Amino acid sequence: MTGTLRVYRWEVAKLLAQKRTYLGLLTAVIVPIVFVVVLELQTGGPNDVPLGRYIRQTGLAVPFVVLFFMSIWGLPLITSLVAGDIVAAESHNGTLKTILTRSRERGQVFAGKALATATYTMAAVFAMGITGLVAGSIAWGFHPLTSLSGTKVSAGHGFGLLLLSLLVYTLPLAGIAAFALLLSTITRNSAASVVGALMWALLMQLLGVLPGTEAIRPYLLGTQFEAWHGFLRVPADWVPVVRALWVCTLYIAIPVIAAYLVFLRRDVAGD
Amino acid sequence: MTDSRPVAARGLVKRYGDLVAVDHVDLTVEKGDVFGYLGPNGAGKTTSLRMLLGLIRPTEGSAQLFGRDPLEDGAKALDGVAGFVEGPRFYPYLSGMRNLKLLSDYDEPVSRSRIEEVLELVELRDRAKDKVGGYSHGMRQRLGIAAALLRQPRLLLLDEPTTGLDPAGMRDMRDLVRRLAAEGITIMLSSHLLYEVEELCNRVAIVRKGRVIYEGQLRDLLDTAASGYRLRVLEPERARVVLLAQNGIDDVRLDDQELRFTGEEQAVAALSVALGKAGIGVTALVPETQSLEELFLGMTGGESSDHDRAAESSEVAV
Fold first, then answer.
1. Where are the domains of chain B?
2. Which CATH code, of 3.30.450.20, 3.10.530.10, 3.40.50.300, 3.30.450.40, is assigned to B7-80+153-222+295-316?
């Protein structure tokens, strides 16, 4: 266990030493700021998205609206940018063989990488959410939030709901990260993995809007990005949240286990 | 079957589709050996070393390091073993010091002073805080040795440690290998340079097209191979007559003002005296050092390939 944690610590340190990590996190921070600035300068608003109508009432509404727009490809791209690179870059640079000829088992190295990917994914979501909240609150104040059921929720309670929503929102994104990690392990090519994972995310979105997919729609990855709506109803609707928990667990576990098995057995040669 | 020798590989095979990169290779490295794994580029040396380190899975056969198989025992098989294949690789965006700190955490963490100690040994202490991305090839090569030494190995596996270094760097690297061997570390190094292996190693395996074609003492091999000499004198025509008359001197040729012949050491010694007595001034009498190519020709009965020739000509440039 300590071995895995030590690997994890260094995996995070490596991420913190690479430009692409900052590129991803910076994008996550800039998007909500730009969003708020544009809305401050314009009069119209995103009235047809959940909470869009209340966006100028309170900063609390901003992160929810931003997350809605970013779920299509923004956050999947930010996530796979790092998740698709985390094994492939080391194959490409040859550093994988450097760390695999030390005393850590392959399983520990993989676990460290998977945990670091999860950490980054969560950091991106929270960076975007909290920045949206702060930027929105500066522009329009930290006021009570109108829930999806039309009732008012106090600002403090709304903040709690935001944190819970960000957590649940991270789950489908982790599903995309898991797929990127699998591609990264198999293809050993960073660009192919980033693009492949993005395609996967878009395919899941596309399936959700095609006619005739109603039956499978609740179980698509893209649908789970809306699970947080359950928190914003009064009383809270736990059905989408619980479904997101188990559906996302599958979308995360299957690629991660597959990637793990490949990582344990694969040849580490110059490529 | 366990074998507690530093390296015991039996029947190693690695196939990539139709290509047989390593073809039933047996290798045994004894404690205290400086073992040379010699062969032209592309002969399968790196692939063999990768299998020893558990980086790739053999198609057939097994490899054991101190009695442990990397396939069965995972990272534990590398206890007491360190080295690199195909040149050491590091994180370019981290400093040399941070890279070593990272790698030591992938073993058991060591103190900062221990890291400074190995950096000192490979003369990189001044550059320890610089990012590895800015290191020269030679510095990375030395950092690779430092990273290996952090593990306090009993066996070092080095893949072409001098390749790509300038002459001074090559000399330093060889000095370092000699020093480490003197400290009692068993070393297995691959090389495509015969003279390098001759200079450093007590035992060799010679590999060609994935097969080991000789394993044993290098000296024995060089002695058995036909040995020629080159002679330069002020009066080649007169010297030629002396050579032809001398016992034990054969195959005399006069080639562009230079005489070539074969003979046993004793006969050659007698020849030099004879030349002196005849009043012929000798400017050079040198044994013809065999190239890897010539050695192969001797061993494989003249069978050669363009591939080997290409490897040979690239080596002449070094």
1. 7-80+153-222+295-316, 226-289
2. 3.40.50.300
Please give the ipTM for the structure prediction: 0.89
pLDDT digits (tens, 9 = 90+) for B125-152: 999 999 999 999 999 999 999 999 999 9
Question: Which residue in A13, A102, A265 is closest to B107 by CB distance?
Answer: A102
Within 8 A of B108 by CB-CB distance, chain A residues are 103
DSSP assignments along B99-139, one per residue: HHHHHHHTSS---HHHHHHHHHHTT-GGGTTSBGGG--HHH
Q: Which residues of B touch A (CB under 8 A)?
A: 46-47, 50, 53-57, 74-76, 78-79, 82-94, 102-103, 105-109, 147, 151
Structure confidence at residue A182 (pLDDT): 98
The pLDDT of residue B4: 87
Task: Please provide the average confidence, as pLDDT, over all residues in chain A.
Answer: 94
> B74, A94: Cβ pair inside 8 Å?
no
Q: In angstroms, rounded to a whole number, what is the distance separating the alpha carbons of residues A39 and A45?
A: 7
- Mutation for B interface: A86, A103, A268, most B CBs within 10 A: A103
Residues with Cβ < 8 Å from B165, sequence gap 6 or more?
B137, B138, B141, B173
Domain B226-289: assigned CATH number:
3.30.70.980
Cβ–Cβ of B103/A99 closer than 8 Å? yes
Distance in angstroms between the alpha carbons of the first and the last residue of chain B: 42
Which chain A positions have a beta carbon within 8 Å of B153's beta carbon?
Answer: none
Q: pLDDT under 70 in chain B at which residues?
A: 1-3, 223-227, 289-294, 296-318
CA atoms within 13 A on the CB side of B7: 31
List chain B residues with CB under 8 Å of A116. Answer: none
